[in-house]
Amino acid sequence: MTSVPVPGAQEAKMKKLIYVLVAVVALAAAFVGWRMMAPPPDDLDLARSKQTQAGMFTVAIAPESEPVRQGPLHSWIVTVTTPDGAPVEDATISVDGGMPQHGHGLPTAPAMTAALGEGRYRIEGVRFNMGGWWELKLAIAADGRSDDVTFNLVL
Amino acid sequence: MRPRLLTTGVALAALLLAGACKPSNLSEGEARVVATLSLAALPLLPADPSNRVADDPAAAALGEALFFDHDLSADGSVSCASCHQPTRRFQDGIARAIGIGEADRRTMPLEGVAWSPWQFWDGRADSLWAQALGPWENPVEHGGNRVALVRQVANAYRDEYEAVFGPLPDLTGLPEDTSPLGSESERAAWAGLTDDERGRVDRVYSNMGKAVAAFERTIAPVMTRFDRFAEAVAAGRRPEGEAALSDLELEGLKLFMGEASCVNCHNGPRFTDDHFHNTGVPAVPGLPPDRGRADAVAKVLADPFNCLGAFSDTTPEQCGEIRFMVRDGEALERAFKTPSLRGVAGRAPYMHAGQIATLEEVVDHYASAPEAPSGRTAIEGFVLTDRGRMALIAFLNTLEPMDGKASHVGQAPQEN
């Protein structure tokens, strides 16, 4: 700091302004970078078994083969029961989802392709084409009622 | 003095955040990503159940001959290799391909193409063999017509064809120039064929594609300096000697995985997510609007040579890609396939119609994230410095082949 001459009030103001500008630009850069690189929230619920939103069903998901890899198409088995554990038959399940931090949906259109009995259903055609936080949203309709549930997956 | 110290402190802290860590080493998360980009992480060549000769060496040898055969074009001047030039890593170095005429899109490189579930920039073919059938009949590429092409193969490759596919059907009596996609007279001649005749021609034609696909499956990605580096990182070793990256290259790699977010789409050992994205690439003046994936969905569904069609060697259950593809929505508008970045520095110009001349301008495009001519760009832009641009390009240069030669052609390890 010794090299800095004792400045007039105006000069000091200018310097301060420059520092502030540098800080703002750098913070903006950091923010953009942070948002795109942001890790999933720490408190993300990664449970593979959940109640649907309105509590109509309990839903469990499991990939048909582990590990779930980024890239290839894969299938999931979805098990639907009533809250007291009775299997729900004749359900139809539709699938949606995406990456909340990137603002895009799933790269494929997965679909329920089989009812396997005992409340178990196969979902085919799931792909995750990027690493990070994915949402898998299942809308379940059975016995004239429908409810949905969102699972979080981190690749 | 104190307020100034405070602002200085904030500025320094922000700069540290923005610049992440020192470029001399990778964080644990970065090292994990680097390992996923390594050639060593390349999965086995995926099987293609729709092509029963996909891994038959005799089919590949026939396919190689067809690939280089100029006689499979209207005027004997164009082969697949005219644009997919083996000495230029199977591309041609020009903005838009030139065959019989000029195409609307850039020639795609073929290295590692068999790992990709969708072919063409817009994915209008769901297999390598279905792709190979397009250019032969495209009026600006080979300009051929189906009956003439099939006849040429029957005349020039009878033994080779029959050794792989069995007896050629009788083609005598079919009109000369006949195709479902050609000129008006060619289409009229095609309409005049019986179902049986059309089926016989299409069978041979589809087999030509399957042979070329068998050949193209041997064009595998090759080792680069980056792969040596990534191997060391994955093994927890310090990259040394030829495995070491310079500070600038390493800085570029960190940007690639970090603030620039390139790795979101250019991921995995081929540096592509095999998906379709609108990245706001400008339209080419004078060319009709190109809607990319949005127009390709109907084409692949209507293609008689798709995985679900009569010439596919598999059952519909095996055709996951086409069964579960996204068929509509704004995300398809002007979306094009993420190209691999292996060898990217050596193959200007860039983008699906060669719109961007240099890597510098490509990096600037992604940093500035302009609005798309139609649909919405998926990229968000990032703050780019001159040093950052240099660093990204230095890193991309580490994806050149180590021996400086064209892609290796040989049998890649396969999935059973």
TrEMBL record, chain B:
<dbReference type="GO" id="GO:0042597">
    <property type="term" value="C:periplasmic space"/>
</dbReference>
<protein>
    <submittedName>
        <fullName>Methylamine utilization protein</fullName>
    </submittedName>
</protein>
<feature type="domain" description="Cytochrome c">
    <location>
        <begin position="247"/>
        <end position="400"/>
    </location>
</feature>
<dbReference type="InterPro" id="IPR004852">
    <property type="entry name" value="Di-haem_cyt_c_peroxidsae"/>
</dbReference>
<feature type="binding site" description="covalent">
    <location>
        <position position="262"/>
    </location>
    <ligand>
        <name>heme c 2</name>
    </ligand>
</feature>
<keyword id="KW-0560">Oxidoreductase</keyword>
<feature type="binding site" description="axial binding residue">
    <location>
        <position position="266"/>
    </location>
    <ligand>
        <name>heme c 2</name>
    </ligand>
</feature>
<feature type="binding site" description="covalent">
    <location>
        <position position="83"/>
    </location>
    <ligand>
        <name>heme c 1</name>
    </ligand>
</feature>
<keyword id="KW-0479">Metal-binding</keyword>
<feature type="binding site" description="covalent">
    <location>
        <position position="80"/>
    </location>
    <ligand>
        <name>heme c 1</name>
    </ligand>
</feature>
<dbReference type="InterPro" id="IPR036909">
    <property type="entry name" value="Cyt_c-like_dom_sf"/>
</dbReference>
<dbReference type="GO" id="GO:0004130">
    <property type="term" value="F:cytochrome-c peroxidase activity"/>
</dbReference>
<dbReference type="InterPro" id="IPR026259">
    <property type="entry name" value="MauG/Cytc_peroxidase"/>
</dbReference>
<keyword id="KW-0574">Periplasm</keyword>
<feature type="binding site" description="covalent">
    <location>
        <position position="265"/>
    </location>
    <ligand>
        <name>heme c 2</name>
    </ligand>
</feature>
<dbReference type="InterPro" id="IPR051395">
    <property type="entry name" value="Cytochrome_c_Peroxidase/MauG"/>
</dbReference>
<dbReference type="GO" id="GO:0009055">
    <property type="term" value="F:electron transfer activity"/>
</dbReference>
<dbReference type="GO" id="GO:0020037">
    <property type="term" value="F:heme binding"/>
</dbReference>
<dbReference type="Pfam" id="PF03150">
    <property type="entry name" value="CCP_MauG"/>
</dbReference>
<feature type="binding site" description="axial binding residue">
    <location>
        <position position="84"/>
    </location>
    <ligand>
        <name>heme c 1</name>
    </ligand>
</feature>
<keyword id="KW-0732">Signal</keyword>
<keyword id="KW-0408">Iron</keyword>
<dbReference type="GO" id="GO:0046872">
    <property type="term" value="F:metal ion binding"/>
</dbReference>
<dbReference type="InterPro" id="IPR009056">
    <property type="entry name" value="Cyt_c-like_dom"/>
</dbReference>
<keyword id="KW-0349">Heme</keyword>
